[in-house]
Write a structure and sequence with these properties.
Length: about 425
């Protein structure tokens, strides 16, 4: 018996509210999606305290449009909930992103998952990572509907970030940190298994592209997508923006886990077509990683897409901060299928990620950065400082965040300059 097709609604236009309404209508109408008298939780992407124009967080006007659409179904309660990125204050993220103002104006609740004390331990059945249980807020588990509100991002740390990745923000910092210390893809699937959104509305009004999710280039794409299937909506989002889905390692895993359909022949797109909505985004990390930085000895056999993408971010950030040339000749290793010659001095080797631990037998003095994947800026900081920086202990607060704040402007200028170069070379791109 063939699988039922997944429906993905696509609306393109300048009016956010009209696009959101159209998406709900194409999905059968909000009254048929949201039951009257129920509790509805909206989960935006508000992981960092950045204003709307940066495209770091879900556009507050998209949040407003969804709230107004949900109100048509006469729910009992609407809650906007988030757990910001590790080390970030959720309430500050709500405020700076504009989501707090929208919630107040629309008369709905705001919940900081990080500060919630009423947690329920939920077992992960058939878990794929080493996370066998997850503590989740009671209000989230008891809600009748969970609406996932990701922003469409194409960035190097995960290649693509959409519906599947956004649910990572329902856990508190300890679980979030545990997820990054192992196979993040499998950990994401485990969280989905205990907290599954029944509706996904993707903000692609102003999408985000570039090397890092914290410093994106906003893309005026003017689209909203909707689906009950998180895999299908992510796949269509990639198709409509020219992202190579084979580079996104968690799609097939999500499909195998039973979260949805990946194959386009199992997906029905309604509303605007992919062809008429297509807008190729800047994807700066595609290419042969082993030869991209010839001044360094890059060994990346067996490296997953996450670590390859982080490699690109960090090597470019070395250039941005002016530390690239002075550290030329370093050997950078990602993945577990590499060979490292014995005659390379240990102090010239950086091992990136948990899967490179085995090389320590041969090179015990090499810099070894923990994580699966590691902390985003860990590689460039390790090379720059000549000490292992992976966020363990007090490093997150004492080294990583101060350095990221210090380098933020120069990294911003570098990224946007690269984007302008790309546009000149590719006039069809946005």
């Amino acid at each position: 018996m063939s699988k039922a097709k997944s429906l993905v609604a696509l609306a393109k236009g300048d009016d956010i509210q009209a696009n959101v309404t159209k998406v709900f209508d194409l999905m059968g109408g909000v009254e048929n999606v949201i039951r009257k008298g129920t509790t509805v939780v909206l989960k935006p992407n508000a992981g960092h305290a950045e204003p709307p124009e940066t495209s770091v967080c879900t556009n507050p006007e998209v949040v407003r449009a969804v709230i107004r659409e949900v109100k048509k179904a006469q729910p009992k309660r609407i809650i906007v909930a988030e757990a910001a990125a590790i080390g970030c204050d959720t309430l500050e993220c709500f405020k700076v992103s504009g989501i707090q103002a929208v919630a107040e104006e629309e008369g709905v609740e705001l919940m900081d998952i990080k500060r919630d004390k009423d947690l329920v331990k939920v077992a992960v059945r058939g878990f794929r990572s080493n996370i066998d249980s997850v503590k989740l807020p009671r209000f989230l588990l008891e809600a009748d509907h969970l609406i996932n509100l990701p922003i469409l991002k194409a960035h190097a740390s995960m290649v693509f970030s959409g519906a599947l990745k956004n649910i990572k923000g329902v856990v508190q910092d300890k679980v979030h940190m545990d997820m990054h210390k192992q196979n993040l893809t499998m950990a994401m699937m485990d969280v989905w298994s205990v907290c599954r959104a029944d509706i996904n509305i993707m903000d692609a009004h102003r999408a985000a592209s570039g090397y890092s999710p914290h410093m994106p280039v906003p893309i005026e794409s003017h689209m909203i997508l909707g689906s009950k299937d998180p895999v299908a909506i992510d796949r269509v989002a990639c198709e409509v923006t020219g992202i190579d889905t084979t580079a996104v390692d968690y799609f097939k895993v999500a499909e195998e886990t039973g979260l949805g359909n990946y194959d386009m022949d199992q997906i029905e797109v309604v509303g605007n077509t992919i062809e008429e909505s297509f807008m190729k985004m800047w994807i700066p990390y595609i290419g042969d990683m082993s030869t991209r930085w010839p001044e360094y000895d890059v060994r990346c056999k067996g490296g997953c897409s996450s670590c390859q993408a982080l490699l690109a971010i960090n090597m470019e950030e070395l250039k941005a901060v002016g530390a690239y040339d002075e550290n030329a000749g370093m050997t950078v290793v990602i993945g577990g299928l590499n060979e490292i010659p014995e005659d390379i001095p240990d102090e010239k080797i950086v091992l990136h990620g948990n899967c490179t631990r085995k090389y320590l037998k041969q090179h015990p003095g090499a810099y070894h950065i923990l994580g699966c994947p590691p902390n985003e800026p860990a590689l460039y900081l390790t090379i720059q400082r000549h000490e292992t920086i992976d966020g363990t202990g007090d490093q997150e607060d004492e080294i990583i965040r101060p350095c990221m704040a210090r380098d933020a402007q120069v990294w911003h200028d570098y990224v946007f300059a690269k984007f302008e170069e790309y546009k000149k070379e590719n006039p069809e791109a946005k």
